[in-house]
């Protein structure tokens, strides 16, 4: 039987702490599930006493705590005197995806979004100027300086403030609450998130004391598969050659168009990159991360190859100019909604909560390492193999990348944390076999028009209810098998 261990502000059992890694998410998502009203009152009182938040916030903290336990806590009759105000009900309605608008967020959240790549444009153009090294060093300074000054107007990270508060600096609890108030529509939402974040930190600390997270990042199958998938998409984002065009497009195009026209043409690449990234705001959650990559990578390979072939045409000819620009611009069009945004979203969501910071750090480091490698090797590639050989090399990697995504990158669209555990618990070999059958189905059903073709389906059985009750944790998803499902013939 599990023993209970009381922390300063919460209860975590030895069973929670020793839980299999596939189930740790359930411990960290909501530590209040199933807790009695009396126990919640104890936690709330302990939290208020510890944080020493002003008395005027005590009521909203209490309401926020019960909302942290259950989003429907105020949806029916209550035995206590806590009631929501009309403006609090409205704030929760705006937040609910069923009744609100996902774009209806405090303006400060949008202000946190920074524009990336302007410094690349400055460096890009500086390569063509007579004072190139001075401009290359100085031109990227302006926008980062503006961004650095702007940072001081933004609220501090509530999580960071809570970590400082847990070191004995009690005043930081109220600072964290005020920061959350700027990031939410109402104090109620800020109080709810503050209470939940504080107790989740208890769970994180307890879990870290009993396991080596870095080792489990590699040794636990579910973690390793998510890490491999994340590193794959980050690696491919760079090796497809996009930043060769971002960094060197002016230099590449100047022999084709001339210096000034080459610089203007390189701006077109950046503009297209921005414009065609906008549809991903919708498609990344509807079409899916994996599907976006699989559908766009053949085009990336084709247009890199088209660009490479353009440099084989006679220098100065209109056909060479047209083919090179067409290849580069259409590459940007298909890169932007797929391989542009997907790696960051995918890496951030695929890792389990308890190792997410380590996994995301490694994924980001991989991206910037290959960004650096691409930037320093292209001039040598260009000198040794010419533009045709260099772009042909990146086209080949796009072909290889399609197969890497097919076999190593599972879909994560609209999956809960527990469903992500299930998806990444599927053995890689099994997923690869299913992927091959899925490709065969797509060819037969959509290209050859065989409407009765059977589509392979991933099914993940769970443990029995008896095993669930015995372990007191949500079910650990076990094995996976490929089933056949008939696709009904919709034609008359």
From TrEMBL:
What membrane topology was assigned to this protein in its record?
Multi-pass membrane protein
In this chain, composition skew of type Basic and acidic residues spans 467-492
**Domain (Major facilitator superfamily (MFS) profile): residue spans on this chain:** 1-413
Subcellular localization: Membrane
Which Pfam families does the protein's record reference? Answer: Sugar_tr
- InterPro entries, alphabetically? MFS_dom, MFS_sugar_transport-like, MFS_trans_sf, Myo-inositol_Transporter
Coiled-coil segments: none
Q: What is this protein called?
A: Major facilitator superfamily (MFS) profile domain-containing protein
């Amino acid at each position: 039987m599990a023993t209970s261990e009381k922390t300063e502000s919460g209860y975590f059992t030895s069973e929670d702490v020793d839980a299999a890694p596939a189930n740790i998410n359930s411990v960290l998502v909501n530590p209040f599930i199933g807790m009695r009203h009396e126990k919640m009152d104890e936690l709330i009182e302990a939290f208020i006493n510890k944080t020493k938040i002003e008395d005027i916030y005590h009521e909203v903290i209490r309401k926020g705590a019960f909302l942290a336990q259950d989003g429907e806590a105020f949806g029916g009759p209550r035995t206590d005197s806590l009631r929501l105000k009309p403006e609090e009900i409205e704030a929760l309605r705006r937040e609910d995806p069923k009744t609100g608008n996902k774009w209806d967020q405090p303006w400060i959240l949008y202000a946190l979004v920074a524009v990336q790549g302007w410094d690349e444009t400055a460096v890009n153009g500086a390569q063509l100027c007579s004072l190139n090294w001075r401009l290359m060093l100085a031109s990227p300074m302006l926008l980062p300086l503006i961004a650095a000054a702007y940072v001081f107007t933004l609220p501090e990270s509530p999580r960071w403030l809570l970590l400082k508060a847990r070191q004995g600096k009690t005043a930081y609890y109220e600072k964290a609450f005020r920061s959350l108030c700027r990031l939410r529509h109402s104090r109620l939402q800020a109080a709810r998130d503050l209470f939940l974040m504080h107790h989740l930190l208890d769970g994180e600390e307890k879990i870290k004391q009993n396991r080596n997270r870095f080792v489990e990042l590699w040794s636990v199958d579910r973690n390793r598969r998510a890490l491999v998938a994340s590193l794959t998409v980050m690696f491919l984002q760079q090796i497809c050659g996009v930043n060769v065009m971002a960094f060197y497009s002016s230099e590449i195009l100047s022999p084709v168009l001339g210096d000034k026209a080459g610089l203007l043409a390189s701006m077109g690449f950046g503009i297209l990159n921005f414009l065609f990234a906008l549809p991903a705001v919708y498609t990344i959650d509807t079409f899916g991360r994996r599907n976006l990559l699989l559908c766009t990578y053949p085009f990336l390979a084709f247009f890199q190859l088209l660009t490479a072939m353009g440099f084989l045409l006679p220098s100065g000819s209109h056909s060479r100019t047209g083919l090179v620009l067409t290849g580069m611009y259409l590459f940007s069009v298909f890169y932007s909604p797929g391989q542009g945004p997907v790696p960051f979203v995918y890496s951030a969501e695929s890792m389990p909560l308890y190792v997410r910071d380590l996994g995301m750090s490694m994924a980001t480091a991989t991206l910037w390492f290959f960004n650096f490698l691409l930037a320093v090797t292209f001039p040598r590639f260009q000198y040794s193999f010419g533009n045709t050989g260099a772009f042909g090399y990146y086209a080949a990697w796009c072909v290889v990348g399609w197969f890497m995504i097919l076999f190593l990158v599972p879909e994560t669209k609209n999956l809960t944390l527990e469903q992500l555990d299930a998806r990444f618990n599927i053995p890689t070999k099994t997923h690869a076999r299913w992927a091959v059958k899925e490709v065969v189905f797509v060819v037969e059903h959509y290209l050859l028009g065989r409407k009765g073709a059977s589509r392979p389906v991933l099914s993940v059985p769970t443990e029995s209810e008896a095993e669930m009750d015995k372990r007191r944790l949500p079910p650990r998803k076990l094995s996976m098998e490929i089933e056949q499902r008939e696709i009904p013939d919709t034609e008359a």
